[in-house]
Write a structure and sequence with these properties.
Elements lengths: L3 E6 L3 H11 L6 E7 L19 H4 L6 E4 L4 H13 L3 E4 L2 H6 L1 H10 L4 E2 L10 H7 L6 E7 L2 H11 L4 H10 L8 H4 L2 H15 L9 E2 L7 H10 L2 E11 L2 E11 L12 E8 L3 E8 L3 H15 L8 H5 L3 E2 L4 E8 L12 E7 L4 E8 H5 L10 E10 L10 E4 L3
Parallel strand pairs: 1-2, 1-3, 3-4, 4-5, 7-9, 9-12, 14-17
Antiparallel strand pairs: 6-8, 6-10, 8-9, 10-11, 13-15, 13-16, 14-15
Helix pairs in contact: 1-12, 6-10, 7-8
The structure holds L-homoserine (HSE).
L-homoserine (HSE) binds next to helix 7.
Length: 410
């Protein structure tokens, strides 16, 4: 492609970041031709730029060969991206919800119209994980992907260790431009789940509707849960996980306790990290800023740059995929509550530890994934769930009972 003429939808946190990043990039044969935003009354961090408000100004402009979509609403983004692809314009987007919810349709549309649809910025901000999974790792050698892929929740969890409340840390994350317009998507693990859908496609060739994946967020975690982790010298991280077992794939989003020797122990604030485990290579950790204006814009810039040589995802792994989502396994979990009776709502296969206190109690043990999946954890404000460091129970035990009982009435 000769010169890239960009039509930019959205001039908020990432849009203005891209504008600045492009201005500092001389070697790229690309320039922003038009910018279309939604709200004419919004005060923007960059003033001396012409902003239009009619999407057709971009969609109907035959000179524009690249549409960069960086708006908040995934529903509106869906209409814009569909139209752009139909009009044979390449599309670069950072919108994980849009891609996760309309994956097959958008891939087909791009293919039919022989244009590229790129979305590196949609997963883990500045970390080039999509292209690496797509190009570098073979399907059959990959055994695990485990990502801290949401900057907002990682920021909140890090601040909790510094004694900052959930509400204050969330507000801070919003002010810093990390959080989604609707932060429920962040704190309830939806954003991480959308990203997991994209990771599953590029790592394993699996197309999964987001509704099929469990997402447990961090909204219900209490100070006592954080203290529990700290007393043990552990940390809590929200992970999007995919683990391959024979022809099955385990995939979900949940918070987990991790020990000091875990590679993500020091991944703090808005940083993200994606651990990729593959045969022969063993574990590799991709680490970088996962949210914010410039880090996200840097990934968008990389996609724009790839369009100079007509780069497209080929989805080769999808043709040979034989994996199915699996839910017949058990997890080692901690379930905490301020109300001890809530803990008895959960059927444990095996109990390792119980603590009953006046204001706070927990149970630790093995629970079937099917049991966990049937509870809407984000709505159970009376309980918090954390995976234990050992997470997956490979040998299912029928034994019931517990090894240790702590009763503390303080
Ligand atoms: N809200 C997202 C996050 C933005 O916090 O990670 C980057 O995708």
């Amino acid at each position: 492609m000769s010169i890239l003429k960009i039509g930019l939808f959205g001039f908020g946190c990432v849009g203005t970041g891209l504008y600045q990043v492009l201005n500092q990039t001389n070697q790229l044969n690309a320039r922003i031709h038009k910018i279309v935003a939604k709200n004419p009354h919004k005060t923007r961090s960059i003033q001396d730029v012409e902003i239009l408000f009619d999407p057709d100004a971009i969609l109907n402009d035959p000179e524009i060969n690249v549409v960069v979509e960086l708006i908040n609403s995934s529903e509106e983004a869906y209409q814009l991206v569909k139209e752009a692809l139909k009009r044979k314009k390449n599309v670069v987007t950072a919108n994980k919800k849009l891609i996760a919810e309309h994956f097959a349709e958008l891939i087909d549309l791009a293919k039919e119209n022989r244009v590229s649809l790129l979305y590196e910025a949609a997963v883990a901000g500045s970390i080039p994980i999509i292209r690496n999974l797509e190009e570098y790792y073979n399907n059959d050698t990959l055994s695990r992907i485990e990502g801290i892929v949401n900057g907002t929740t990682n920021y909140i969890l890090t601040q909790a260790n510094n004694g900052i409340s959930y509400e204050d840390a969330l507000q801070d994350a919003q002010e810093k431009g990390f959080a989604e317009a609707d932060p429920t998507l962040d704190v309830d693990g939806f954003d991480a789940k959308f990203k997991l859908v994209l990771l599953l496609k590029h790592a394993f060739g699996l197309t999964i509707k987001p509704e099929r994946l469990l997402n447990i967020g961090i909204r219900n975690l209490k100070l006592k849960d954080v203290q529990f982790a700290n007393e043990k010298g552990w940390r809590i991280k929200l992970f999007a996980k995919a683990i391959k077992r024979d022809n099955g794939l385990i995939a979900f989003v949940a918070p987990q306790l991790i020990t000091k020797d875990h590679s993500s122990f020091h991944v703090d604030d808005e940083f993200n990290a994606v651990l990729v485990q593959a045969a022969f290579a063993d574990k590799q950790l991709f680490y970088g800023k996962g949210a914010g204006s410039f880090p996200t814009a840097s990934a968008v810039l990389s996609d724009i740059s790839a369009l100079q040589y007509n780069y497209q995802y080929e989805y080769r792994k999808s043709a040979s995929n034989i994996l199915e989502l699996e839910d017949d396994f058990s997890l080692k979990v901690y379930i905490g509550s301020e109300n001890a009776s809530s803990l008895y709502d959960i059927d444990f296969e095996e109990i390792d530890d119980i603590f009953i206190g006046k204001n706070y109690s927990y149970r630790i043990g093995n629970v079937k994934f099917q049991t966990i999946k049937n509870i809407d954890w984000n709505k159970r404000s009376d309980m918090s769930l954390l995976l234990l460091p050992e997470e997956l129970i490979e040998q299912k035990s029928l034994k019931s009972g517990y090894n240790e009982l702590n009763i503390n009435q303080n």
